[in-house]
Amino acid sequence: MRNMRTPHLATTKTVTALLCMLGVISNAHAQFATTIIPVTPPETAASTQQAAPAKAASKPATKPAAAKPAVPAAAPAAAVATPATTTGGRVDPRPVDSILVVVNNEVITRQEVAERLASVEKRMAAQNVQLPPRAQLVRQLVERMIVERAQAQMAKENGIVVDDSMLDRAMQRIAEQNKLSMPEFRARLESEGMNYASFREEIRREILSQRLREREVDNKVVVTESEIDNYLAAEANAGGQRQELDIAQILIRVPENASPEQLAARRERAEDVLRQLKTGADFAKTAAAYSDSADALTGGDLGWRPTDRLPQLFLDGVAKLQDGQVSGLLKSGNGFHILKLVGRRDAGGNQAAAPAVQQTHVRHILIKVNQVVTAAEAKRKLTELKERLDHGASFEELAKLYSNDLSASKGGDLGWIYPGDTVPEFERAMDQLKPGEVSQPIETPFGYHLIQVVERKTDDASKERTRQAARQAIRDRKIEEATEDWMRQIRDRAYVEYRNDE
Known about the structure:
Blueprint: H1 12-22, H2 30-33, H3 43-47, E1 85-87, E2 90-92, E3 99-103, E4 106-109, H4 110-126, H5 134-157, H6 164-177, H7 182-191, H8 196-216, H9 225-237, E5 243-253, H10 260-278, H11 283-290, E6 301-306, H12 312-318, E7 330-332, E8 335-346, E9 357-367, H13 375-390, H14 395-402, E10 413-417, H15 424-431, E11 442-444, E12 447-459, H16 463-493, E13 496-498
Helix pairs in contact: 5-8, 9-16
């Protein structure tokens, strides 16, 4: 429950960072559309190419051993040019769109890349991030779009969809959370240089990606009791003092099952990047040009994070650094990292001194909304179940039969919930219920719920709560590490063909 958070528009920096990372589409940058070619495939792709006939040598594929998927006939290699206009006897050419990259059975066109590039350049300038050479930025952007396209295809294969009504509700929640009406929200976006329709589609992709990640990564992460014991012991040895670090990173990703030659090439690339930084290159600009991490286009900045939410590799890498200094090469399962310590600060006190809080023992029945079940159908189904509960049916049995949540096997039991453990919509409805009472159908980003409060108690931040907080900290850290590995696998397993011909 606690991992589903809707985006906030709290500050310009927050939204700009989100949209830079995703690459919001703006109006077509037509003049550049015809000059964006050719794009040189990244080293990862080039290193896996096999010998090909001379005629096809300009079209390398990242997975030559795989069967080439059929590209839809509706996407020709080069679109027909629109009629040209005449100005004073001179013919003004119109840009021609064509395929730049084939990703499995779909394509990315030069025009798409041009549009995204124009948006990214604008937003990087707004963040005062120095722009790298355009060829490097294009390469980074194309790689990002390849991963996005592969993720969207995987989501479709798994039946994950975000329809317009679901997206409308998400946009409404974002506006409400920022205490804005929808007209005010649109005006705020426009004042920050964002097109509303483009922002809306980016939120759709963000929700889609988040749901796919929950399915493929989050639900597979396991935290053991021994890991919690070790975490609490380490915190006790540190005297309970909590710190936050602001770290920026550059990741040179290593392909899955990389050969010794590939590993050596990626290490050499990482060492070259490190040499540039040591001789005065700007970190944010260099990250935008070379980093394979999802935060590359925001200069690699991870923002302020508690130390318990950072990988131990990162903590060790910056332990002896002063603010502004850069680490050496750090090797992880995903590749080579270079870190910059932007700053460190006291997180504000000892966790053991937490005040007394109210706990709620709660259970629920969840019906998810997807391409098969509409919002109206989910709400109608829960209304029927509510009537059965009002006439004496067992909540536990109905949850086991109908709930789409992992808690179904436990009769929908979510255990003892603390304030802030669930999304706001769920918590507000839960707080209004008396013990034994069942709510009407409640909508949250997960779908529709029936909520029942079993009992309540006041707790003084007990040992159970301390262990729960430790479990969540370990889980968050594992999810972040697993997500990086998952994204690398998506990229490595996709069939990718670059079309460098004119």
